[in-house]
Amino acid sequence: CARSPDDYGRVYGRILGQCRGPAILHWLGDMFDPALAGYWGHADLDRATEVCLDVIRQHAAKIDGIKVSLLDKDREIALRRRLPAGVRMYTGDDFNFAELIAGDEDGYSDALLGIFDAIAPAASAGLARLAAGDQQGCHEILEPTVPLSRHIFKAPTRFYKTGVVFLAWLNGLQDHFIMVGGQESARSILHLAELFRLADKARVLHDPDKAAARMTSLLATH
Fold it and tell me: Within 10 Å of residue 99's Cβ, how many Cβ atoms?
């Protein structure tokens, strides 16, 4: 219902003014939810970025960081370099998370990703390597998971949950592949078959025999 960039400034100011501790903001792109097109009061992302930065600068003491889910590596890095001191960048880029977490000479993005639900063991092991200063070891673990993540979050990105739940089912974390509103049908059987192959290559199938049996059953049904 916002009608101008000033509306965002007023609402964020009112909410942050009531916070007792630092908050994490989340800029969720319209690829995740079409209703969020034009967030910050502008369809143009450059102009939207300026509004976002203005809000953060005015309330930096109440902001721990911002999660950016625009699936645009260069835009995230550019915004990261302009954040006020002490405000962190949390990456929501499920396409380029490995390199964004590793960072560059000017900084890095902290990890706060949807894909980490699907690749939790690999993510844990990779971040442990990174914390120990072993950046190469981190890359060796996380890089094979990037193609899987890009597939799960491919357009229409808003149906990524189907892939996350499908992988949870393959891994025995739930005993069915049924979702609210029939969302299990949001992706094709070919999409799910490729997801299975990529999950195998990424080594995130906890019990390959169980996963293969469940995949076989699904393919037989189709």
Answer: 18
